[in-house]
Amino acid sequence: MIPAIEQRWSPRAFDPVAEVSPEQVGVLLEAARWAASHGNTQPARFLLGYRGDPTFTRILEALRPKNRTWAHRASVLLVGAVVTADERGPLPNTVYGLGLAVQNLVLQAVDLGLVAHQIGGFDKDAVRTAFALPDDAEPVVAIAVGRLGDVADLPEELQARETRPRKRKPLTELVFSGTWGEPAFSGETADEPQHE
After folding, report:
1. Does pLDDT of 39 surpass 70?
2. Which of 19, 97, 176, 188 sits at 20 to 30 Å (Cα–Cα) from 71?
3. 142, 59 contact by CB (below 8 A)
């Protein structure tokens, strides 16, 4: 794997004084812009707030309370949204397109020495209202970006989650060949093919 994929994780401990420059954020969003999308429809849109500005505050207020306990320390908060239609009509696979854009953004963050945490726990209606989203725009994910901070700054119940090992299901449970459920690989990684 490329190092950015190996090193990517979703910390909650952000440095509360570190800044992410507009130039760095521009690189992150440029990486998102170059993501693949169905028919090059480019459905991904982003709301961008820097710690201390009104956009950041409105995004933070839309997060679920437990997410607010740590996300307020991030340097940047974003909301990733999709536009669901254009002049040609409804767009296909919009959430897939946003997912690709966000993955590009997150991997670019790793390359820049930053950390990012994608957040599903937020009030989409609050975002819609706070930012006057049109009917054809749907908020999907919030993203905290910044520099890694001290785990001790987190609420106690989150400290253990922050330091536990990363785990993923083995390829034997994820990749099949022949029939559904028949593993294509015999081990944890693709280094051990089941079928020649």
Report:
1. yes
2. 97
3. yes
